[in-house]
Design brief:
This protein is of the alpha/beta class. The protein has 14 helices and 14 strands. The C terminus is likely disordered.
């Protein structure tokens, strides 16, 4: 798997979902991950390191921040090919190149070409659905989608956009969820009396926290004991903390900062509902995490959120509408008994669980290795040997 999005020590949550995607695919395939990025202090032309992380062979390419456009792409290409040589020297012979987001293509395309292997491009970039790509990004996206053997976007709205940008073959694919980590609380555990909600996401304008806080006074008027747990860090934290005092809701809102996946899972099991007030999303994994934890979601009508909640997983409201958010929160709090935690968890497991997603990727890989890929050379071989998937190589 080849990805520019992956956790690094200074960016611990960037692309964190790639880890579970790789773990999912590794259930039936040999996986190596190649993560690349510009990094202050990196030695030119690039630094290449190798470790084992989460049980998966992981290579990292770091290169100095580019002084001119195109230099970063060149460094990513050279680093990726060097990583490929290292893998091949150790007997790892990739059959599939699985890239995360079109921004991975400067590294992924030359590797696929060198191998004569099919290229799978998994797309998750929300700026595509918003039409917020710059000119150079749009050109790179068009090139990447046209040269990929299959593009796998997260959700229907994103699928429509990648088709408009020239993707030849499109198969929708969700991110993977560890349902051993995210699961409902024990039936003996008591729910809160006034209602307790969790919102997980970076404290960034696109996540819509300002609208959620503006909804809180109306919620507290009806449910004075309601509490909101905010998990995440970001540039808006100080502004949002000030807003809680201005709105008179500081006692009802707690800021927890960054928390690990394990910690988030534990927190979800103490809450009654999840709130996603985002202004834009694709197919947000946090909604699946809430479902797996047995709690409903109040989410905005962006990206694939309506699709995810269409089976009874919660309530959808317009984005940027505090009044609608407040009404939906009160509605869900008043009807918590109508949400069956085990049914929600089963739905999440069937759609997003590691085994379920692995099965879907296996079908994609098998179709490419059967000879349908124009890049495929020679006879097809077993799909479970040497697969380089979503963040690697």
């Amino acid at each position: 798997m080849i990805t520019p999005w992956f956790p690094w020590p200074d960016t611990p949550i960037r692309g964190i979902w790639v880890i579970d995607q790789a773990r999912s695919i590794a259930l039936d395939h040999d996986v190596a991950i190649l993560a690349f990025r510009p990094k202050e202090g990196a030695v030119a032309p690039f630094e290449l390191t190798e470790t084992t992380e989460h049980g998966i062979r992981t290579l990292r390419v770091a290169y100095p921040p580019p002084a001119f456009p195109g230099m970063g792409m060149r460094a990513a290409r050279r680093g990726a090919l060097a990583a490929l040589e290292l893998l091949e020297a150790g007997g790892f012979l990739p059959e599939v190149v699985h890239a995360h987001v079109f921004l991975a293509s400067p590294a992924a395309l030359p590797v696929a070409h060198r191998l004569g292997a099919p290229l799978v491009l998994q797309e998750n970039l929300s700026r595509i659905t918003d039409g917020r790509l710059g000119l150079l990004e749009r050109l790179l996206a068009r090139l990447s989608y046209r040269r990929a053997d299959v593009v796998c976007p997260a959700g229907g709205p994103l699928a429509a956009e990648v088709r408009r940008l020239g993707a030849r073959k499109v198969i929708e694919m969700p991110n993977a969820l560890d349902t051993d980590r995210f699961h409902p609380r024990e039936r003996s555990a008591e729910a809160s009396t006034g209602g307790k909600a969790i919102a997980v996401g970076s404290l960034h304008p696109k996540k819509g926290h300002r609208h959620l806080l503006e909804a809180m006074p109306a919620v507290l008027d009806r449910r004075p004991d309601f509490r909101l747990e905010l998990v995440g860090e970001g540039p808006m934290r100080e502004e949002l903390e000030s807003a809680t005092h201005r709105l008179g809701i500081a006692e009802a809102v707690r800021f927890h900062g960054f928390r690990s996946k394990q910690e988030v899972a534990g927190m979800m099991r103490t809450c009654d509902l999840h709130i996603l007030p985002s202004m834009r999303e694709n197919l947000p994994l946090v909604v699946a995490e809430a479902m797996a934890s047995g709690i409903p979601t109040v989410g905005t009508s962006v990206g694939g959120v309506p699709e995810m909640l269409s089976g009874g997983g919660g309530v959808v409201v317009p984005r940027g509408d505090p009044a609608a958010l407040a009404a939906a929160i009160l509605e869900v709090c008043g009807g918590l008994r109508s949400y069956d935690p085990e049914r929600l968890a089963a739905s999440a497991r069937e759609s997003y669980g590691l085994a379920a997603v692995d099965s879907r990727w296996t079908r994609v890989y098998e179709s490419l290795l059967s000879g349908e890929s124009p890049r495929r050379r020679g006879a097809s071989s077993t799909v479970n040997q040497g697969v380089a998937a979503t963040d690697g190589r």
